[in-house]
Amino acid sequence: MSNEEWFPLIDEKGNVIGKATRQECHNGSKLLHPVVHLHILNRQGDLYLQKRSMSKDIQPGKWDTAVGGHVDYGESIEEALAREVREELGITRFTPQPAITYIFESAREREMVHAFYTRYDGEITIDPVEIDEGRYWPIDEIHQNLGRGIFTPNFEQEFQLLEPLLTGNTKPLG
């Protein structure tokens, strides 16, 4: 049995049209595949970010969304989100709220991002293989560091899209 990771290939409406390996999806082929992101806010309105492990093949050592991961072939978006949150941060009880779905494209990959948010003040246990460190960032501190090369480009783009929702300027968080 192979340890190769298989991702669903999807069309621009999110319908599964095939499958491909992680390597095939990340080699510049632009095969569209789904991922999940979770933004975590604490009671004070600070946003939890993870610093990607230096061993990551994409954007090592950069600060990123609290949780981000691929949907495995045969897995639902909700199942992938629960698995990734459990694996990366050790959180098993949270209430995700859908935020936005969009296509992110870089030189190496093309992903349909399903972003969620939640409020959480419990314990977080990071996976040291995936994450070098994690902490809550005040929104002002995120603003002060945008464009300085410490965040992933995907996080910066997504943060700017979601900031009104995350800060309560459009509707209150759950």
From TrEMBL:
Cited SUPFAM superfamilies: Nudix
Name of this chain's protein: NTP pyrophosphohydrolase
Keyword set includes Cell membrane: no
InterPro entries: NUDIX_hydrolase-like_dom_sf (IPR015797), NUDIX_hydrolase_CS (IPR020084), NUDIX_hydrolase_dom (IPR000086)
PANTHER family, per the entry: ISOPENTENYL-DIPHOSPHATE DELTA-ISOMERASE
Species whose genome carries this gene: Barnesiella viscericola DSM 18177
Record key words, sorted: Hydrolase
GO molecular function: hydrolase activity
Taxonomic superkingdom: Bacteria
Domain annotation Nudix hydrolase: ranges: 31-165
Species classification: Bacteria, Pseudomonadati, Bacteroidota, Bacteroidia, Bacteroidales
